[in-house]
Structures are given as structure tokens and as C-alpha cells.
Amino acid sequence: MSRVAVLKGGRSLERQVSLKSGARVEDALERLGHDVVGIDVGHDLVSRLRDVRPEAAFICLHGRDGEDGTVQELLEIVGVPYTGSGVSACMRCADKVVAKHALRDAGLPTPDFFAFSEMAFKQLGAADTLPAIEERLGFPVVVKPADQGSALGIRFAPDAGAVPAALVAAFSYSQKVLLERAIDGRELAVSILADEPLPIVEAIPLGEDFYDFEARYEIGRTDFACPAQLDDDATARVQQLALEAHRLLGCRGLSRVDLMLDADGKPWILEANTVPGMTETSLLPQAADAAGIDFDALVARILQGAS
Fold first, then answer.
1. Are both 204 and 284 inside the same structural domain?
2. Are 245 and 205 in the same domain?
């Protein structure tokens, strides 16, 4: 038995999802016989950690602070081993623009994109480049904040007239925005556990054009197929590509790589998540279950990889 601090909640926009993930993980750790201390992360985190003196921290924080390397850095300073990726991998994956540049530089397929800061729009005339961007990317384009997860702030712009409102929405979540060529196809997710890809999950929105924040976390809003109905070659290709992205970005322990499979059967990497959700509708637990790994065993294996 060991003392494990479960870090959850925090101040990001994904706080409620994080609390659900944390509660499920705490229950599993208790069933596994650990001494569990739940910490709703706030200004007293360091003092709480020093009081509790856990042997490991299980990170269930989603979004800012939890996935961008901030908490990971603090844990390293106070000497507490933690689950998931290290500081640099978290920083790379949390910034979609940085991650996509890394993917493109390495020759891995990711949809064409351009990115701007809010300052570039306000002070450098970036808005005047929109016609050229739109011509190069084509329509529809996806407009998304650079550093939010769970589909927060993402908008589809079917034509030039929809772009300004989409930019306003995205800038309300982040100071940097990504404009990305939309891929029409199937939405896939490959969870990686201990450097091994799990069965592919396909998200099938019910009556929605887009797998949005609410659809991700409300039971009944989205159907999931796991394993996804793909032939063996396509399955192997998608899993291998996800694993390459996981390794390229420096992830360790676990991650979830989101992809699109276009009408020609070509996979495109959208992003990698270093702290996948652990809720009842989250994709990593579904993939693990399809691989014969129940939730408690999944939690045990993630904790085992803490360093």
C-alpha cells in the first residue's frame, strides 16, 4: 500500500470533467488498497503536498495548469513522482500550434494550418491576411484555441463570412488561435498505454455535425465504437501513426492521440493529449476495456508508470 495524492479540479475550464475523472480514480485506488488523498488543486497545492507527503501523485487535471507542464514542474521541485508525461512533453502537447509544427516538421500528416496571436490581429494587421489564408486552406476551416482541450471554443467556418465570429469565439478561450483545414471523415482516437496502442475508438455524434464539449461528456449524446470498424491494414496504420506522434512529442506512460480518417482512408493527426479523461464517457477507459483491461487495472498500470 502507498499514499497517493489524486490531483483534480483546478481552475481550468475543464474543472468539472477533472473532478469526475479524479473521483473515479480515487475510488479505484482505494479498491486497490492505496491510502488516497484527493487534492482539489489551488493556491495551497505545494503546502498540501508537503503536509501529505505522498509517494506518488496521480494527475487528473485537464486543461491549463494540469496538462501544460505547470503542475508537473511543481511536483518535480517538491520531489513527488507523478503519472503521465514530463514537463516538456506536456508543454508541447498543450499548445496545439507547437505540436502541429513538430508533427509537420517530422513529416507526419496533420491538416494544413495557420496560427496567430491576438496581438497579431490587433497590432500587426493579421486580419488582412485572412483572404490569403482562406484561399490556401479552402473551406470549411476549423477555428480553434491553441491551448484548450475537450473541444472548447472550437468553431467550424463553412465560408468566409463565418470566420470573424469563429475567431472571436476562439480568442475568448486563448490568446493564440489556430485556423486548420477541415478534414471530412471519421473521428478516431488512439490511446497509448505504456508505449502500446490500445484498440481504436471512433466517436459517432448523434444528430450533430461536430463532436463538441457537451457531446463528449453527456451520456447519450455520442455513440462510440470500440474497436472502430476498420480493416486490419487501416487499424495498424492508424495505431502506428498515433504511436509515432506519442513518441515524437515525448509523451510517456499514457496519452490519447486524436485523428481524422478521410474519405480516401488517409489518417490525419489532430492533436495529442497528455492527461486523457477518466470519466464514464472518456475514451481511454473505453479503449482499455476493449483490450481486456478493466478500470481498476488501468489505474494500477498508470500509477505503476509514475516517475
1. yes
2. yes
pLDDT tens string, the chain, 307 residues long: the values are 699 999 999 988 789 999 999 999 999 999 999 999 999 999 999 999 999 999 999 999 988 788 999 999 999 999 999 999 999 999 999 999 999 999 999 999 999 999 988 888 778 877 788 888 888 999 889 999 888 655 677 888 888 888 888 888 888 888 899 999 999 999 999 999 999 999 999 988 776 555 444 444 454 567 889 999 999 999 999 999 999 999 999 999 999 999 999 999 999 999 999 999 999 889 999 999 999 999 999 999 999 999 9
Asked if 49 and 172 sit in the same domain, the reply is no
Q: Is 73 a catalytic residue?
A: no
Domain count along the chain: 3
Is the pTM higher than 0.90?
A: yes
Is there a single domain that holds both residue 98 and residue 233? yes
271 is catalytic: yes
296: three-class secondary structure by DSSP: helix
Select which of 9, 14, 84, 216 is catalytic: 14
Question: For residues 14 and 269, is the Cβ–Cβ distance under 8 A?
Answer: no
211 part of the active site:
no
DSSP H helices, 79-224, are 87-94, 96-105, 118-123, 130-137, 163-171, 213-217
Of residues 152, 135, 108, 115, the one with CA closest to residue 15 = 152
Is 273 a residue of the active site? yes
Domain coverage including residue 16:
3-83
Instruction: Judge contact between 97 and 71, C-beta under 8 A.
Output: no
Domain co-membership, 22 together with 78? yes
